[in-house]
Write the structure tokens for this entry.
Amino acid sequence: MNKTALRTRPKTGPVQVADFAPESMIELRGVVKRFSNAAGEFTVLKGVDLTINRGEFVSIVGKSGSGKSTLLNMITGIDHPSDGLVVVNGTDIYTGVSESQRSNWRGKNLGIVFQFFQLLPMLTLLENVMLPMDYVDMYDFDERPTRAMDLLKLVGLEKFANKLPVLVSTGQQQLAAIARAMACDPPLLVADEPTGNLDSRSADTIIQLFELFVSQGKTIVMVTHDPSLTSRTNRNIIISDGELINETISRALPQLRHRHMLEFTRIAETRPLQPNEIIIQQGQPVDYFYIVSKGEVEMLVKDQVVSRLRTNEFFGEIELLQGGNSLTDVRAGNSPAELLTISRADFLRVIQESPITAEALLKIAQRKMEALKEDKLAAKP
Ligand code: ADP
Ligand code: MG
């Protein structure tokens, strides 16, 4: 990709990027971040590609030190990548942009929420919420206090508007920080462990508020440690040691350890399928573990469809785990589809290291076998 060809360059300020789909809010291409310390240079983000569309509510999880905050800092422009392209809300935020231009752009385009709130201690909650409007000079001067008050009402803090942060609870401080993040009505909210320092009830209030924003069309990207919150987002991204895990793999095999998911991410190959393309014939050896990554796949016995596998479902595990040739014909559905394939040897090596996954797969395999037996009986003339 020729990066320079993508851009129309105004004389000053951020560059508009026309190349990306209008529905995309965040585009990362080959983002690398290196830090140096006494021991030398180390790479924290190892070439991250990521697209997040407008209106998505995305959670990001990963072990401590895996690069979650660093990744968010690339999106918010708080830090800058060592290499790669970052486009947020249609703007290339690093190429030819000064620190102060980026800071102004940030104020108008995104709200940020941190784990430790970061409210200014000597300002009241109302003043804290007004601050971003003053900073980027948005809304009429007279309108700002009313707007700040409306935001505090929205988060249920109107009674505390004139209090200093120390005089309210930590949950309330975070709600005020969220009101502040929304002060300039940004299309994107980025939150780094926003509930990490809160009890579960306050955390729930905050997620409900995020759900409300998403229903109003906002995009939210939230790093979290709490698995109970990831189920409430539309999409969950896992980062492991500075690399993103293929989302089809993490959805198909959620019991795998992150490092095993990462290994599968690295070795899996993509195989596009024409409509109705034959993948395996009954009685033939099975050499791969297959996950459906797009479209639908049909399993057939005697030309009868006995089951359909949708995106993130898999096949081949029965034959690989229990031995024997394919129990069914397998072919693509009526529209184009795509598979991720992992070779027999790679699959078995990783599964051997992950007893929980092996057990889960065997259970799924048993269920499929039983269903298949019934279907075979039913299919007999
Ligand atoms: P996470 O948020 O997933 O816990 P971080 O993104 O904060 O992880 O950090 C990832 C790695 O990068 C860690 O090893 C951390 O020590 C290192 N790191 C983060 N920021 C800096 C920095 N400014 N300078 C040097 N190393 C850093
Ligand atoms: Mg962090």
